[in-house]
Amino acid sequence: MKKKLxxxxxxxxxxxxxxxxxxxxxxxxTEPAATEEAAEETTEEVAEEPATEEAAADGQTYTIxxxxxxxxPALDAATQGFVDVLTExxxxxxxxxxxxxxxxxxxxxxxxxxxxxxDVDMILANATAPLQAAASATNTIPVLGTSxxxxxxxxxxxxWTGTVGGNVSGTSDxxxxxxxxKMLNEIFPDAKxxxxxxxxxxxxxxxxxxxxxxxxKDYGYEVxxxxxxxxxxxxxxxxxxxxxxxxxxxxxxxxxxxNTEAIANVVLPAKVPVVAGEEGICQGCGAVTxxxxxxxxxxxxxxxxxxxxxxxxxxxxxxxxxxxxxxxKYNAANCEALGITVPSDYEAIxxx
Length: 352
Prior knowledge:
The protein folds into two domains: 138 residues, Rossmann fold; 137 residues, Rossmann fold (3-Layer(aba) Sandwich). It is elongated and about 60 Å long. Helix 3 crosses helix 4 and helix 6 packs across helix 7. By secondary structure, it is α/β, with parallel strands linked by helices. Helix 2 links the parallel strand 1 and strand 2. A seven-stranded mixed beta sheet has the order 7-6-8-9-10-12-13, sandwiched between helices. A six-stranded parallel beta sheet has the order 2-1-3-4-5-11, with helices on both faces. Helix content is 53%, strand content 18%.
């Protein structure tokens, strides 16, 4: 009996051992399966990461800092044309930090230095003072100027070839000054004295006056210069010019453009017509102008910017571009008030 009981106990022990081994074998077989599944999930996650990086590369974004010297219709139009072109081409991939310097050169320096610190992808310098500030602040970030009359004068380049070089290029708002002098003579052939009214702080205004003076003298006019330093003495200087001259010429001058109402309040009662270097000044206080489209100029600058940002062009080799067309325009209300009849090929400036 004892032998039978012992045999039964041994049999139970062997069965238990076999069951235990079976359980261990099952566990060993299932663990690799779980590990493989986890590995597959990890592999899938890793595989997704390069795709995200590729998408980031394809979705390149750009930040452009815009420094505009002062708010007035011409500069506003140039900025708008620039923004419109890049928004159309790049959509949400481009953002603009648009800042206005309120006519102060010191503010231009502060604004541009902020752009450099933020490491923007490009700077648009709208007018001469912002261009000068940007060119001084960085030699690596691409700088495009617009509404610049003469880059050689603005940047003190003596051997001008049409290309600034380095990290600077842009567009010029210079209308043909010989054609403006011709237009003045066409409308006012009997005038004797022409006054040049401009801001002495704007180098490009001085350049325009120096250039057009020769053309006006060729037509037989006596030419006198009248400069104001800022908006504070615009009225008094304009009054002197109106008292001494038959016609006043105002170049593309930002200070004058910001003070057209003050100028109009002097010249219209004095019955002295103004020939303006651009449409915005003419709309405010002038009679006639041979003007570019500043919106088109901004669009041209935007096209240049797109080529630079996408690597299609090297800013160092891009020549300064000019507005493709100029148009003879007149201020209908001011011409009527002054008794001026313009030829049929002049276009009336649209009124708001």
